[in-house]
């Protein structure tokens, strides 16, 4: 009787998991199928087209006047790789200071840092724009890149929690051997925080890659557009939208972050799972 109940419980659990998985996968499968459809077929309740429009991909890649999607890919990669490197380097330095160094009002400043996570971005939008406009940074990549040099409160908090789980005895041993604070940071803490750094890298790159609002605010020239803005150019209120080409390009646009996630998945899961277990 007990074995029968266990079997039914496992069967019900697996059935529920399969049903939830299908619900989550269905939009992606529809998205893939729709990228090969004609505009007339997009609204039909079918997963796959009656005739596969393979040309949606090359036509979509070259659809925008004067610019191919290669141009927008290069723009997005330049902006997001630079911002990600700055995010991770700055966040790791600040996190090391909060986790290992002693200085006046450390807990107060850390509390202020955490409060900025709760601050809606809309509150700081106008002051930031005014500041960047006074610097003549509008229509450049600087407003998208320079703030990353501040580290980002979320990434600092993530790495602080991980560093706190590392025994301080390692620091003391390094000091006895004559290692400076920067040496401890570079030679001991950074190698041990690799999972947290990978997690911060993935978060930073994906959030920056998907960001539509910030480039919309600060970039005016088409030659500086990132991929989200380029996709928006497909939607023309004065003419019919080539939905097949738009969906094809949007599907290709997620390729870099998906590849980065799967290549670094092991370290990402480890970083999220072990962050904050101690301290």
UniProtKB/TrEMBL annotation:
- Which UniProt keywords are given for this protein, alphabetically ordered? Cell membrane, Membrane, Transmembrane, Transmembrane helix, Transport
Q: Where does it live in the cell? A: Cell membrane
Q: Where is the ABC transmembrane type-1 domain?
A: 73-264
For the keyword Transmembrane, the answer is yes
- Stored InterPro entries: MetI-like, MetI-like_sf
Where is it found, in Gene Ontology cellular component terms?
A: plasma membrane
Q: What kind of membrane protein is this, topologically?
A: Multi-pass membrane protein
- Protein's recorded name: Carbohydrate ABC transporter permease
